Amino acid sequence: MLPHKTKLHSIKRKLVNNITAVISLILVTIFLTVDLSVDSWVENQFNQSLSNKANYLKTLVKDHAGKLEFDFAGEFMSEYEQANASEFYQLWHEQHTFEKSDSLQIYPGVDLPNIDIPINEFKIIDYTLPNGEEGRAMISHFIAQQEDESARNSGHFNTMVLTIAAPTSALNKVLIIIDVVFLLTCIITVFGVRYLVTRIVNRGLYPLNNLNEQIKQLDITGASQTIKSDFKVEEIEPIRNELNKFITTNQQLYQNEKRLTSDIAHELKTPIAELISLSEVALRYPNDERITSTYTSDILAISQRMKTIVNNLLLLQRAGSSAIELNLEKLNLSEFINDLSNELQFKHPDIEQRLQHDIAVDLLVTVDKFCLHTILTNLLDNALFYGVPGQSVNLRVEQFADKTTITLCNALTEPLSEQQLEAIFDPLYQLDSSRTNNQRHGLGLSIVKSLCNLNHFSISAKNKPDTRLALILTLPR
């Protein structure tokens, strides 16, 4: 006998069967349409008032044979006087302040926003006024009116930038009043319908509320937790399953983040301790030439190490957050790797003797140059550093119909364990041989991994015969 299958309850069917007869979509649509239209009209009127004031102020700027004058009379526009200090304006000529309103003079050191826009164009932005009120600013780029006919014909003109700012408190009040009026009208109209809908939705959404309560009790910083279900609902189960996957992933990420934070602190702790020790010794023995003669160079070397760590961490963060903009272009891979070899010669003088590559002369790939440069630079640097001194590093490129593979092999004193192969791309992971080297921070291969993910490349590490390590980079075509 087959086990009895529990029928899942459906929130969708329940809501559709009980609410369809009482909901009036037309009323809601009309309310939203009218409300948005009126709000838009009111805002346009406010913006138009800014434009009118700006146009008036522009007419007051005169160009008398190259000499600029601003003929402003405060009695006609009292809102710009110090006594009111409610609205502000500022004029610029050649990026230098030409004139400010009296209302802005009482805020020394404060300038209105000035952004680069084309001539005879304007832009309206939200802006916090110098007096702390919320407002809007209108920036205009215009040509000063030339009084002399010969000056107008000369083709030389002076451009000005005008910014005026006004508070939006009155506008916001009007918008709120409009919204409240429409909202109250709609509420009164559909009050009876709303009452029925609320009761039906409250009953139908009980499983969602129950799920929400379980989510509130979760703590990803603690032991492994998942959301369990005693009352299965057809629409909720996929959400519950995906949430459990998300929770598990975030618990792992949290643990990784804790480890990464600890590793970063450890990496920075050593150079900081060295800086403190050097400074304490220099302060205690200020006249000892053995200390003072090398103090500045030691401080510089330690600071450069810290800068390298921070730069690599920033590059790792950019690559992991997709903050790098990809610019695909065709590259000759043979020439590209030859250039990389020349760049690394200062760091590895024997690179010409050790690096053996097998690349077709005319092999082309379409990639982001910066990303591929960073990836291959780190791979070559690691292969040459970790490889047995004097033994060759082999680089082979194979091109297939759907992909291009770049395989880099170097000899090791002993093969890596499976655990080391899995962790080799983790941030701040270092082999024992690199922990005593101040120039190795365990960030290179993690940057490579992040950039590969960003470019949809794949990278893997494998042990090869004769105690050799192979790093395989695959570029899709």
How does this structure look, described?
- Its EC number is 2.7.13.3.
- It catalyses: ATP + protein L-histidine = ADP + protein N-phospho-L-histidine.
- It is found in: Cell membrane.
- GO terms for molecular function: kinase activity.
- Keywords: ATP-binding, Cell membrane, Kinase, Membrane, Nucleotide-binding, Phosphoprotein, Transferase, Transmembrane, Transmembrane helix, Two-component regulatory system.
- By secondary structure, the chain is an alpha+beta fold.
- The chain has 3 domains: about 35-175, 2-Layer Sandwich (Beta-Lactamase), CATH 3.30.450; about 210-320, no CATH class; about 325-475, Histidine kinase-like ATPase, C-terminal domain (Heat Shock Protein 90).
- It has helices at about 10-20, 25-60, 100-105, 150-155, 170-190, 190-205, 205-215, 235-285, 290-320, 335-345, 350-355, 370-385, 420-425, 430-435, 445-455, and strands at about 60-65, 65-70, 90-95, 95-100, 120-130, 135-145, 145, 160-165, 330, 355-360, 365-370, 395-400, 405-410, 460-465, 470-475.
- The protein has a 5-stranded antiparallel β-sheet with strand order 4-3-8-6-5. A 5-stranded mixed β-sheet has the order 10-12-13-15-14. Strands 2-1-7 form a 3-stranded mixed β-sheet.
- Strand 14 (about 460-465) and strand 15 form a beta hairpin.
- Helix 1 runs antiparallel to helix 6, helix 2 runs antiparallel to helix 5 (about 170-190) and helix 12 (about 370-385) runs antiparallel to helix 15.
- The longest helix has about 50 residues, at about 235-285.
- The two termini are about 55 Å apart.
- About 15% of the residues are buried.
